[in-house]
Please model this.
Amino acid sequence: MTEIDQTRKGELEFPRARAQIEAELESFMSGGQAGGMAEVPALSFEKGETRFAFPVNTISKEQTFDALNLIKDNIENIRVHTFEPGYLVFQDLGPSLYSNRQNPMEGIKFKFVSISSSHRIEIVRKGNLTQDELQACINIFRLFHPREGEAVDPARQLAELGVSVYQRAQDDQDHDQDAAGSGADDGQSGSQEQAGDSGAAPTAGFTRKHGFAGYKKTKQEVLESVILPLKHPEVFTNVARMTRGVETGVLPRAVLFEGPPGVGKTSMARIIAVETGIPMVYVPVENILSKFYGESAQNLGRIFDVAAAYEKVILFLDEIDSLAGSREGGLFEATRRVLSVLLRKIDGFDTRDGILTIGATNRTQDLDGALLSRFDTIIRFPLPNASERAGIFRRYARHLETGDLEQLARGSEGLSGRAIQDVCEYAERRWARTIIAGGGDLNASPPPAEHYLEITGEKSKKLENLENDDF
Ligand SMILES: Nc1ncnc2c1ncn2[C@@H]1O[C@H](COP(=O)(O)OP(=O)(O)O)[C@@H](O)[C@H]1O
Ligand SMILES: [Mg+2]
Model:
């Protein structure tokens, strides 16, 4: 029974409409959908109005255009009822523009609603749905919930664009929950991070499992300005509301990691992805520039668009130095185009919560001013100091005595974390070779300290020569 008396062609009683929708969307309702069905769509009939509503992950311009196309398959005269950012409504004008059979204000409405990072679609209709309208509902639901096989996997699309995605495995998340329950930072990290780490609190969140020695100040900055705001945005928002009466503007939008090569900028970005559980889209800017020569700008734009399919995402632009001007003559035309796309996209991303852009560079001073100004926080990664070098040596040669580590630290001034790691790995290889040459005793001792000292000396000398070459 309907509450309006004009019956329209093909009109369905609500229970029948519901049965049809349920049958059509059975695979979604029963949770058999691998694509991940967050919530069962709600079909209701209340106060003379039929309402079909469901949340979606994103509403892109392309999707609304596709949706309009689908609606047109079943409903002929559609008008734009509202066209505002985050609120787009299409409405049916009735079967004929000149017939008065339907009050144009009562036609079915398709609403695409985005409020900050939450998106939903609502379809409302005074009275009952017609068969055509019902079909349009199902089609739109399908459009936003592609079936397995036709599902668009952003990680795969990104891979085609030369970009990989780091995502914390479910196992790790469970593990993390346990760790949090038992009291945050593991006790061992204190002993591992003796390079000035006395209290546990400031660097809580960085544990031994990350394998990142020293850098107390850098870690603290990363924790305060990146990890905690991403993990607990509501706390930061609340504080801002109390202090300034604003809801937004406290969460980081774009953070720049600056420091010489090999000091852990890339590693830190991965740690952030692990710690926050937010997927990190890793964009090696230099590769994008060389791989897609001529189409780099377009592809970079695509990368941002695809990444936007994630509800929360960290976009890591590694080695943005490749976008820096050369000392003599500014930028190439292609590079300039890439830069302008990048600026535009970072700005666009800015408007959405749950998205963080991290850039890494070792030539901050040469970066384009407009690009630099997009970053609201700059975090420095200096070369490691002596006690940090000892800590890094300890990471890669845990059998060495403290006295030896200190001596290695003194002899490795100017070496980055990566250089120290290289030294240690080289020492292992050379030692293994010695063992094999001597008959291959598997129970032989680990490489002695002198071995490391010698190789450190060679490496430091190489570094000096390199520096001299530069001048
Ligand atoms: N403080 C550190 N502790 C342990 N390993 C480090 C440290 N700094 C750098 N490394 C190691 O050096 C390597 C290079 O680091 P990376 O993050 O690529 O540096 P960057 O991106 O700054 O060039 C990594 O394998 C990392 O494990
Ligand atoms: Mg790097």
Summary: Residues 347 and 374 are 8 Å apart (CA to CA). The chain is about 45% helix and 15% strand. The two ends are 89 Å apart (CA to CA). The longest helix spans residues 449-470.
